[in-house]
Design a protein that fits this description.
Layout: E1 6-12, H1 17-24, H2 54-63, E2 67-74, H3 91-100, E3 107-113
Antiparallel strand pairs: 1-3, 2-3
Length: 114
């Protein structure tokens, strides 16, 4: 990347509320295992191998030479179709909680400059 270049990166947030609920229930907070590369090498979908926290993204970006690093908690679900959500009836409660507690939002947005 050229000097002065900018990095814009989004990734799922490890502390997202729905993911924490899944873990507390003994389920995975990642995609279905049947779709993973481990069980179906011919499948192109890889999913996320690791989820990151806000602090981890800040540390990694700084260590590889980015400056002016900023990581924000975001909620991009309005951009995506939400009609398939299992928890649609709880959506108003999730939204209020995520407004009060930003670390529970589902996405992280990293902005950095070289």
């Amino acid at each position: 990347m050229k000097t002065g270049g900018r990095l814009i990166l989004t990734t799922p947030n490890i502390s997202y509320f729905e993911g924490l609920v899944k873990l507390a229930a003994g389920r995975s907070n990642l995609g279905p295992l049947e779709l993973s590369y481990a069980l179906s090498p011919k499948n192109d979908w890889r999913g996320h191998v690791r989820l990151f926290s806000k602090q981890e993204l800040e540390i990694m970006a700084s260590r590889v030479g980015f400056t002016e690093v900023s990581v924000r908690y975001m909620d991009f679900r309005d951009i995506m179709a939400r009609k398939f959500s299992r928890y649609r009836r709880f959506e108003p409660y999730f939204r209020r909680m995520m407004y009060v507690f930003p670390p529970y939002r589902p996405n992280l947005l990293l902005l950095a400059r070289t």
